[in-house]
Amino acid sequence: MEHSDDLGHPDLVKIIQERILSQGRITFAEFMEMALYTPDLGYYTSGEEKIGMEGDYYTSTDLHPLFGEMMGRQLAQMAEMPVWTENVPRSILEMGAGKGILCQDILNYVRRVHPQFYQHLTYWIIEKSPNMIQRQKERLLSYVQDGKVKWVDGLNHPVFSEGISGFVLSNELLDSFPVHRLVKVAGALKEIYVTLKDGRFQEILDVPSRPDLSSYFEKLGVVLEEGQQVEVNLKALDWMREVGRILSRAMVITVDYGYPAAELYSPDRKRGTFLCYYKHRVSEDPYIRVGQQDMTAHVDFTSLALTGREVGLEVTGFTNQEYFLMGLGITQEMETRLQQHGDLPAGQAGLPSREKELAAMKNLIAPDGLGRVFKILIQHKRLKGLKLDGLNYRPFSPEVLFSL
User: Fold this and answer.
1) What is the pTM of this model?
2) Secondary structure letter of residue 99 according to DSSP
3) pLDDT at 350
4) For the residues of 202-260, what is the DSSP string, one character each?
5) Quick one: average pLDDT of 9-31?
């Protein structure tokens, strides 16, 4: 653990400390929830720059518009499939839209290449951060003025009262949900709680706070080794249930870093996957820079898929970002972009060098980087006979998700 006197935002630290003093202790999940989402003070709810080269981490959308354009290509292919019959999809719902870059790149592509799909389309955004909403509205101003982009405060909004026909999209959303952290000690599962000692946060172990934490690994058939530390994202499963219930005929695309349960909870990952990010530096210490650093843990895609089945969502396919983008033709698009770049006047203002653009595009599919780290789970409800380009190139067998 890092040694630092910088506990984080003083007001936020005080609020968390007062909560601990009133209760004696809190679960790590509660600590993480407060650190990330306390209004105006949490990491995601404050106004500080977080995403991109100037922030603490970057996403695929920060690298190059091709990521969003390829996603737009996949959405358009889905929308034009005959399986919808007369109930043509008219909605894209993105949850946790960040700076609005993915929305912008998708709509730019669809408007240019698939005007009929664009004509009847509404792009809905659910976003917790008021600061992010303001930035999204600024970036997407022209689409807002055209009535193409709208914001709602949650899935229970009246506009979805008859269910969603279309697509639900999230990109690096679930890894930011608070997780319970547990460890196997003397043959028993113990949960990590947060308390105070000498004014600093301290971890203690005790019995799990919820029965579904104890049954979580029993359902998966996963046996943890002595001393093995793991994370359980129960909020991601709640999210999946809520999404599944609100859909009528739809598809769900979840992009995040994670693994099937058998790999995620392998003994090879004895310390789990929880990490913090600050100015592109990685740390395992959540008790410094509270409210000023990101906290994440890898997603259990097996539990996500199993939970989806409970609410009528079947697995369409599971793959990684490299294979998904290759199936959609990203390499051909890269060649086209580079040829166009070569036709432009040398040194034209505002344009990246050819080498920089090539590096950015390659990063999206790099096997030792974003290409293999990020996984893509596609699910469907009340649709049959789906064949997607994003699942054409070396897709994972569905059994990979369920081989426990």
Assistant:
1) 0.92
2) T
3) 54
4) EEEEES-SSHHHHHHHHHHT--PPTT-EEEE-HHHHHHHHHHHHHEEEEEEEEEEEEE-
5) 97
Q: Are 31 and 194 contacting, i.e. CB atoms less than 8 angstroms apart?
A: yes
As a whole number of angstroms, the distance between CA 294 and CA 176 comes to 8
Q: How many helices (H) and strands (E) does the chain have?
A: 17, 16
Q: For 375, which DSSP code?
A: E
Q: What Rg value do the Cα atoms of the chain yield, rounded?
A: 22
Q: Give the bridge partners for 317, in sequence order.
A: 378
| Mean pLDDT on 78-86 | 81
Q: Which helix (H) or strand (E) holds 79?
A: helix 66-79
Of 206-210, 213-217, 310-314, 392-396, the least confident: 392-396
* β-strands 149-152, 26-27 pairing: unpaired
Write the CATH number for 97: 3.40.50.12710
Domain range enclosing 90: 60-174+236-259+298-398
What is the domain count for the chain?
A: 1
Place of tokens 């049954």: 215
Single-letter amino acid code for the residue at 200: R
Q: What is the mean pLDDT of residues 180-200?
A: 96
